[in-house]
Design a protein that fits this description.
176 residues; mainly alpha; Helicase, Ruva Protein, domain 3; 3 domains; 0% strand
Amino acid sequence: MKGCCGNDGISPCGIALAAASPSVKAGRFGSRAQALLPGCAKAAVAAVLLMLAAASANAVDTEAPLRTAEQQSLYRKLLEEVRCMVCQNQNLADSDAPLAKDMRRELRRMVEGGASEGDIKQFLLDRYGDFALYRPRLAPNTLLLWMGPGVIVALALGAIALVIRRRMKMPIPEED
């Protein structure tokens, strides 16, 4: 069976057409969906999805670079380390929320004013709390956050060792 883009059932972009071979079983959507989306249409849909993904990955910060390379480096580092308070799972560099824009503007103003990284982080901690930083400081109120994974792994290893020890003490059944 000829495909829409070639005579062997392969589109120019290398997508094998399911309708090209009768031995290909219908997928989740059945042969109707395959008939509705021939190889070229599948490639076009994939291209559109890739363009949409690329468009959403555009840089959020479009401001001019800072005066010195050190300031620009510090600013970029802070944008990667500071969490957006609205999105919460994005850093300021990736977020397009209005609050993130305000935070980027404030960070830029502080870096241009000559504030150190420690001063800027302390400002963020005072204003937004420990949640503002992706890597929170080691403090009494964040101790569980830092020690928790190690404690969980130690407990899991202890439980495994206990199970192995008990199984080693069990008698081995004799076969007839």
